[in-house]
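Hey, I'm writing a tutorial for new members on how sequence and structure tokens pair up, and I'd like a real worked example in the thread rather than a made-up one. If someone can provide the structure for the chain below, I'll link this post from the tutorial.
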Amino acid sequence: MTGGYTKAVLALGSNLGERNDTLSEAVADLVDPPEVRLQAVSPVVQTKAVGGPAGQPDFLNMIITVETTLSPTELLKHCQAVENKHLRVREVRWGARTLDVDIITYGDLTSDDPVLTLPHPRAAGRAFVLYPWSLIEPAATLGGERISELAARAPDFDDLAPFDGFGDYDGVPTAGAVE
């Protein structure tokens, strides 16, 4: 990247409220400041919740790639501010949430900092991150392996489904859904 921009991969997920609208608005919010430029947006996939309490609504997940002049810590703070704007509540680890934004990679940076571990420590085993990412960057790698191959081996791969636009409120079909 030239001009001081670093490429970052961000994962977005929502399983409460108007999930699809939340994701769309969050993408706009994430790339609103001039320090963050949108490169690509993946299709949205619907998945079962991975980890956390049982009985959660299904998640909608997507990946965006951006270029940013923000430092990793500044980008994390920006992502958390966007989560807060969309009424993210942090009461239960991996619990239901209106919006979750994770930094998957930040350039080639590796970090073991507990506040921001890079690459994201669980990304290589999560199809809901890897599969949408592979749709916009088929040749991308994580830890030296193609993300499409990692996705196919991930335990949650069989639970992925393309999102058809229906069932947009807490994972429950809304008007017009065909079952």
